[in-house]
Structures are given as C-alpha cells and as structure tokens.
Amino acid sequence: MKHRRLNSLVFIGIMGVVTWGSVFAVYVIKAFASDQNIYWTAQTMPLPLEETRGWFELLIDGDSLENHLSRGVLTIQNPEGSRAILLEDISVRLNNLHRV
Fold first, then answer.
1. What is the number of other CB atoms lying within 10 angstroms of the CB of residue 96?
2. Which of 97 and 44 is assigned the larger pLDDT?
3. Is the pLDDT reported for residue 96 higher than 90?
4. Residue 72 near residue 84, CB atoms below 8 Å
5. pLDDT of residue 1
6. Of 70, 43, 41, 71, which Cα lies nearest the Cα of 56?
7. Which of 11, 36, 55, 86 lies at 20 to 30 Å from 96 by C-alpha?
C-alpha cells in the first residue's frame, strides 16, 4: 500500500480553520451568553421624558402622555396618599440595540 504525504498547504488550511474557527466560536458564544441588558440605558442614569421625544411617543387612551400630565389627570397612590404625577416623576430607559 502506498503511503501518501499530506500536502503542506492542506495542513496549513486545516490548522487555520481550526484556529480561526475556534476564535469565531468563542465570539459567538460570548455574544449569546453575555448580559442582555448591555444595550439598555443604565438604570442609574435614566433619561428625562423630554430627551426621548424624537424616539417614541407614549399614548394613553389615544392621548399623549404629556397632555395627560399637563392636565393633571394621572395620579400615583403611595402610603402617604395620592398626588398628581409630574413630568419630573417620569424617566425613560432606552434599548439601543438597533444602533449597534
């Protein structure tokens, strides 16, 4: 039986696929196993509602949140009682994944 020698270019190609394939696999695993909250605005730094006007508009019963707040019809209930919700009470966290 004749013993064939492995071509050195084939060997280099196989080593490259194994090396770079494993590097690629590590990056894919890190991407799927990483913290899914990485693209959200930090919880400690939420944005005021005024800064997010160009990104979304929140409607309640067909009317904008800002209109409800200006009329004072939204209230919050807490142990001390109830009061009207102010614009300063609302903050927003955005998911910036679409920008990546």
1. 12
2. 44
3. no
4. yes
5. 60
6. 41
7. 86
- The residue among 60, 63, 54, 61 whose CA lies nearest residue 92 is 54
**Cβ contact 95:46 at 8 Å:** no
CA 96 vs CA 17, 51, 56: distances in Å: 34, 14, 13
pLDDT for 97 equals 72
pTM across the whole model: 0.54
Question: Residue 2 has what DSSP assignment?
Answer: P
Does the pLDDT at position 58 exceed 70? yes
Q: Which residue shows structure tokens 């909250």? A: 37
Can you tell me the distance from the alpha carbon of 27 to that of 61, in angstroms, rounded to the nearest whole number?
Answer: 45
Whole-angstrom distance, CA of residue 72 vs CA of residue 59 = 15
For residue 25, the surrounding DSSP H or E stretch is helix 8-33
